[in-house]
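QA checklist item 7 of 12: single-chain prediction sanity check.
[x] sequence parsed
[x] length recorded as 319
[x] structure emitted
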Amino acid sequence: MSYSIDDAITPTTPSGHVPVLLRETVELLAPSNGAKLLDGTFGGGGHTRAFLEAAENVTVVALDRDPAALPRAEALKTEFGDRFRLHHINFGDLADLDESGFHGILFDFGLSSFQLDAEERGFSFRYDAPVDMRMNPEEGISAAEFLETAEESSLVRAVRNYGEEPRVRRVVKAIMDARGTGALQRTQSLAALISEAVGPTPRGRKAVHPATRSFQGIRVEVNDELSAIERGLPAAFDRLLPDGMLAAISFHSLEDRIVKRFCRKMAGRPEHSHDSRTQDEREVRASMISTRPISPSESEIKSNPRSRSARLRAIRKIS
């Protein structure tokens, strides 16, 4: 039986989830007969399904820290049997996984649509829900507990460094003043508190909800997301076969900066503008697919607005 990329790509998974940059990802990793791939961020399983359907005898090993992903994996397990297996771990702990020899590896960072749309998870202020925000609700502390107990420096790091909110001092003061009042326990009361602290969007600047940046920063802090990326990328690269492809989809500048610098490091290029090492001090272990990230097409953005900020970067491991 022969397959084409179009055979493997459908607009949504059976659950209605819309995978981002699906065609571009399948074309990059180009699964062939007998290939072994790693999906480091299973989520709704859209990329995993496309890989399994792209060619005969493709095996996909998937990871997800969210226990809610386990039931979603059952349909793929039933359909593809031993060709698919899911490990319930954080991709940041990939170094502990006893799996290697991959022809291709994909990361799709950030929230899945399932997490964002689950009211009780507290990721979005569209719903009134407990401020949890944990990608794995069985581990760590909730975002509400973090807001109630964290030191001021930790709050500043979350709001300024991870949320990139310019009015950080106002937001942090409002959070600390609200401790013990109950305002930090529910998403909509927290969003209202932050909105009041931030104030209206300055004229000429793109209008977004005033709490958007702070919610992002708090979520990144609670889940230790950036550290997980910094650990997961090199661990994944070490598990690639020669000529294997490592691809990563990012949704905001903090994630993309880490991916960009890692790709440049592996390709023996300056990691940033202040990297003054000589070429003799660099090690070339990969080739970059492109110096610029791959972005969604206009048609994909129109059909799936959440894909707008997605950026795909990839490197190929040198033999």
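[x] summary fact logged: The radius of gyration is 20 Å.
[ ] second reviewer sign-off
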